[in-house]
Design a protein that fits this description.
The chain is mainly alpha-helical and 68 residues long. Helices cover 63% and strands 0% of the residues. The protein has one domain (2-66). The chain contains 5 helices and no strands. It starts with a helix and ends with a helix.
């Protein structure tokens, strides 16, 4: 779940996978500080990375505007 959400948010922001690959593949799980840093870098709340849901283009656009 974290990996998929992270990939979708990263792609929406146009960022490369190089730094986030281990997290996206599930080979590594971020500690709380890193999770907050990842979310902050993507402009979202940490819960957006941990919540199971279908991420759509509309959801991504809305969340960037309202920081969900």
């Amino acid at each position: 779940m974290l990996g998929t959400n992270l990939r979708d948010w990263r792609r929406a922001r146009g960022l490369s996978q190089r730094v986030l690959a281990r997290y996206e593949r599930g080979a590594r799980y971020p500690d709380e500080k890193t999770l907050h840093a990842l979310a902050d870098a993507l402009g979202i709340l940490p819960a957006a990375l941990l919540t199971p849901r279908l991420v759509t283009k509309i959801t991504l656009t809305r969340c960037f505007k309202f920081k969900c």
